[in-house]
Write a structure and sequence with these properties.
alpha+beta; 7-stranded mixed sheet; 504 residues; 28% strand; 9-stranded mixed sheet; Immunoglobulin-like
Amino acid sequence: MITRRRLLSSPLLAGAASLVPRHPGAQSEVAPAQGSSAVLPNSPEVLKTLWTSYYDGTRVWGYADKHSVAPGENFRLMLSTGPERESVKGKIEIFRIGHYGETDRELVWEDDEVEVGRNDAEMTAASLGAGWPLGDDIDTGDWKSGYYTVDFIDSADGQRDLNIAFIVVTNADKSGDILVELSTNTYQAYNAWGGCSLYTSAFAGDRAQMVSFDRPTPPDFFEYEYYFVLWLEQLAAAQNLKIDYATNFDIYRDPVFAEQYKLFVSGSHNEYWSKEEFDAVYRRIFELGKNTLFLGANTAYWQVRYGDLDNNAGGVGRGRQLVCYKDSLDPIRYRVSEREAQLLITAMFRDGSRRPETMLMGVAYQSYFEAESADKYPYFVARTDLPFFAGTGYREGEAIGDVVGYEWDNTDPEADGKRLWDEQKSQIPLLDASLINVVFKGAPVDLNGKQGTAEAVYFVSKAGAKVFSTGSIRWAWGLGKPEFVQDKFKMLNRNLVMHLLQYG
């Protein structure tokens, strides 16, 4: 039994962010187990593949049982040691990530010593979940909306296992100044714990078609969104703004999250959306006229659905399985009409020009270079006549920082003038090209040596929504990552956010 002790604000020492290791990156892969059909389930080869780690020397692994909770709701942590040890004693600490003066986190919960035992990891864990025993309830009390990370500290030698699990706390009112939607579906799509991701499979085929949220997950939040969140919360403190957070599943489950906030921010690598989420954000921009910031790139690229919902209850459930067949062979086509299948198959939104991202945010994914590459590419100012340039001193043609990559978007990814849209096939209207203002341009080179075009754009929809799309995953690096941050860039972003909030 865990004895809980609720805490008042208790920030860690300054520089806590430096404790966050960098995981291998979105393009890392798990090597397939050779001759896996002849490998025993508990062999060292299989165990190494199942327990793939984003840290060296991980002792405790974990995951939460929910995508998110509202303040006062409970969640549970499932914990296990790795296969190399039977048990370990220590304590759990939970922190909210944000701006707290000289530190990036606030301690909100800790327990007395707990013993974590070893649980099995089956070869089905990546798709069906690890299935570890439920931990005790953790009461969130009056926790603020935000991203919360979980650490484990070994009692024997004080080793801190960082970010072994996370939970997102939402706002039950679903309204405020800014909602930041974190890219939680994408975290899972690239997660190879258990041997499979939506990109790789160590056991059968070239990739999984379904992955589970009920398994240890790399802390991808800290790669990109972290820098934006720290910067935004500092701005919010200075401007008395209310910032809330949500997951992809929250937008699926309750589209009101995408409707009532003054500004909706889509996260840095928000690649995997449900149809319901696409509908909600599209409606926000083109029907409700609400302002929106697409923070990253490769957004709304793959359509997904959740595989463990109760259809008799209107599609409500835990949503802990993420399904993406990545082609038109999705078997849902056998269960619905051809017309419905065109809306529901889990392929690219742009497939067959059905719902191209260009018609949602003005730009769409073009290409990438390796996430771990040392390559750097700047954005250059294309125009300065928009309100958010005031006071920045930027001039046309000036570089604003090496914030292009590792994936990028532009207004016409296939460079054929069609912008992915087809008059006969597209199921959403044409976004008039004359409305789209290209604000920044870059010329990154992809992993095959081909030069691409990166573009950040601004437009106002006919419904009145002001929309800015950064066209690059690394945009947030310019707000806080060492060697990328620039003061003029931070001022530009301040002006942009305040403009999208209609305060300037």
